[in-house]
Write a structure and sequence with these properties.
This protein is of the alpha/beta class and 451 residues long. Helix content is 39%, strand content 13%. Helix 5 (180-194) packs parallel to helix 6 and helix 10 (350-366) packs across helix 12 (380-398). The longest helix has 19 residues, at 305-323. Residues 24-358 form the NADP-dependent oxidoreductase domain.
Length: 451
């Protein structure tokens, strides 16, 4: 599908299927947020974004719910798109907007506050455009869809598609959330009600070393055709979803060497020194203890749990999503495009970014993709070591906590956004600035037309 024909809409690239344009590795910036670090503004967010691009990671995922994440990511990208004069004789080459893929979300306002009304969705998108210094968004998800009614999700998806078709500020539309069954049901509902499938579904925390439910019953098996008609991947495929992405492969901090203290009040558990995660993470204490044991087993095998968890999830998802027909295209020398599962990874430091990219290159090498020197270290041999460690030691150690999930939303959840306030837009100049820019585009278009 071509870009918008509306002269008041910004110029956007053509719209081939999402699987043909979405990069397979996406840098998630939920970590640019006080939920993960005490002061996001002091973290090296500009360096992280620049280093990601230099390493070939050119897709970024954010949300207005992630505190200052959109603003920080937008600042970092804007500095690269509009570099000032450098100290040397050679000016920096500006990063073109076409040089990266930008993803955000809409609908979640706060931890217990949601507004999926069309008016709020439009406002949220226009605000994201400002914060991210971009004329268009490549992909927008409705954020954490399990917290609202199916009717609200449908209305919001329709509005995103209107913004796509009439305003040209959105290219692809999807949903994201935690319970896999809910994501499946909503994808089926959108397809049935509109006749158009979702471009993307983002699932988080459901294809990790600890929780494999997104891939069941494919996990650790060489099955084809979705592992049965009732499996999540088969349901997504039948609902016409183009791409399913896997996120939070470290379980939002559970699967790390540091782990998450079981009791944030206990002095020997680290207390506030353990970071913000200890207070908001929804995992029960027993699960935190079980995951801490995985770090010990990994260390005994000469590995860091982070590396094992990243490698297992990325590699297995690359395989399973491709087999289910829900992956993205990558070029294979001498063969042409092939499918591979897409993963979203969040980091807080350059070191974490480089570790993630190293493991990703190992995944590619194990799949027969040439990625340069060092393939023998990070290719099939280490892949087998990781798979064996997970299968033979980590999964048995988890026992009943393997594939455990917490409720989302939790018991007694109430949307604190009053129904009367939904669709109420702040008078902060966001909409007015957009309408002024749109009028300017319309004026320029009309004066350029032949008389």
């Amino acid at each position: 599908m071509a870009g918008p024909s509306n002269p008041a809409a910004p110029s956007t690239p053509p719209r081939p299927p999402l699987h043909a344009v979405l990069p397979p590795l996406v840098l998630g910036t939920a970590t640019f947020n006080t939920q993960f670090v005490a002061d996001p503004h002091s973290m090296p967010y500009r360096d992280i974004v620049a280093r990601a691009l230099s390493l070939g990671v050119n897709a970024f995922d954010t949300s207005p719910y992630y505190g200052p994440s959109e603003t920080l990511l937008g600042t970092a990208l804007d500095a690269l798109m509009n570099p000032g004069p450098g100290p040397g004789p050679n000016p920096a080459v500006p990063l073109p907007r076409s040089g990266f893929f930008l993803v955000t979300k809409a609908g979640r306002v706060a931890s217990t506050e949601f507004d999926y009304s069309p008016a709020w969705i439009r406002y949220s998108i226009l605000r994201s455009l400002q914060r991210l210094h971009t004329p268009y968004l490549d992909l927008v998800y409705m954020h954490d869809v399990e917290f609202v009614s199916p009717a609200e999700v449908l209305a919001a998806v329709r509005e995103l598609r209107r913004l796509r078709d009439e305003d040209g500020v959105v290219r692809y539309v999807g949903i994201c959330g935690f319970p896999v069954d809910t994501l499946c049901s909503l994808a089926e509902m959108v397809y049935a009600e509109t006749g158009e499938p979702l471009d993307a579904v983002l699932s988080y925390g459901h294809f990790t070393v600890q929780n494999r439910r997104l891939g069941v019953p494919w996990v650790d098996a060489e099955q084809e055709e979705g592992g049965g008609q009732g499996s999540p991947l088969a349901r997504f495929k039948k609902a016409g979803v183009d791409v399913v992405l896997n996120a939070s492969i470290l379980g939002m901090g559970l699967l790390t060497s540091r782990g998450i203290p079981a009791d944030p009040q206990a002095p020997d558990e680290g207390g506030d020194d353990a970071g913000p995660l200890v207070h908001w993470h929804p995992s029960p204490p027993e699960l935190r203890v079980a995951c801490k044991k995985l770090a010990e087993l990994s260390a005994a095998a000469g590995e860091r749990l982070e590396s094992v968890a990243i490698r297992w999830s990325m590699a297995e998802w690359a395989r399973l999503a491709a087999a289910a027909g829900l992956g993205v295209d990558i070029a294979t020398p001498g063969v042409g495009p092939r499918k591979i599962g897409a993963t979203v990874c969040g980091v807080t430091t350059i070191g974490e970014l480089e570790e993630t990219v190293t493991e990703w290159r190992g995944v590619l090498a194990s799949l027969g993709q040439a990625v340069g020197r060092g393939d023998e270290v990070y290719g099939s041999a280490r892949q087998e070591k990781v798979l064996s460690l997970v299968r033979n030691e980590l999964w048995p150690a988890l026992r009943s906590w393997l594939d455990y999930v917490w409720d989302s939303p939790g018991p007694g959840f109430v949307n604190t956004r009053r129904e009367a306030d939904r669709g109420t837009i702040p008078d902060d100049g966001v909409v007015a600035a957009y309408e002024k820019a749109k009028l300017g585009r319309r004026t320029v278009q009309s004066t350029a037309e032949p008389r």
